[in-house]
Amino acid sequence: MGETAEPVTDAAAMDRALRLAADAAAAAEIPVGAVVLDPEGRFLSEGRNNREETADPTGHAEIVALRAAAAARGSWNLSGCTLVVTMEPCVMCAGAILQSRVGRVVFGAWDDKAGAAGSLYDVLRDRRLPYRAEVVGGVREAEAVSLLRTFFTPRR
Known about the structure:
By secondary structure, the chain is of the alpha/beta class. 36% of the residues lie in helices and 17% in strands. The model has no long low-confidence stretch (mean pLDDT 96). This is tRNA-specific adenosine deaminase. GO terms for molecular function: tRNA-specific adenosine-34 deaminase activity; zinc ion binding.
């Protein structure tokens, strides 16, 4: 993806993440999309769920986007970056977020079944851990929830 020249707003980043989530749904993947913004607020990387395609249990949008961001920067350390994702990160993704030192996470839909950024768990802000991230939840939540409901309703 590479960096863009202009910083973007959380809403613009979420718009891109929502498009990626729709792409995931079209590929029969759970509709979650994510983008990473560099410290200046420019697009750095993106990802969408690809677990089914890759037969990889870690194929969550956040992990895909974090790996691409680290590759683009040439470093695992993503200090100062922001992760924007359509659904609240799970415990696995929250761990990867903290290990990569992402400083800020913006997400759309809350996940009361597996969320680790404030609903079920609050891993990203746990003061017992050496690293924490700022969390902004519920950004364009209705759109993110709609994608998830549209995907899951015929499957359940």
